[in-house]
Amino acid sequence: MDKELLKYTVEKTHELMNAPSCSEEAKAAAKTWLESIGTEKETAETKKYIDELEADIMPIDGLIGFAESDTGVQVFGADTAKHVAEHAKELKSAGANYCDCPACGAAAAILDKKDVLFK
Questions:
Q1: Could you give the C-alpha distances from 83 to 15, 35, 60, 68, 110, in angstroms and in order?
Q2: Predicted structure pTM score
């Protein structure tokens, strides 16, 4: 992997892991990927890491649906759920495909480079 791409991906991986909204599964995949760098397992772990990020990133329509659901209200509280839904709708109208929380932002940045991560 290109040194600059590796540096960028490692930085975004640390951002992901430090994000309060990062799932435990994504943190585990990130940690395993970081530990695999420079080993014979790196390619396989990169694939697993990308698969996990693709599974975890929140599509904007999913965020809107969740924030407007009864479960979203239970998780966020009524006022916050309303604000999250409004924010997500603004993001969608601006052309966003994904949630912009710190974890999803870092995941999206890594996924934008996924095609070159395997070269």
A1: 24, 38, 14, 10, 27
A2: 0.88
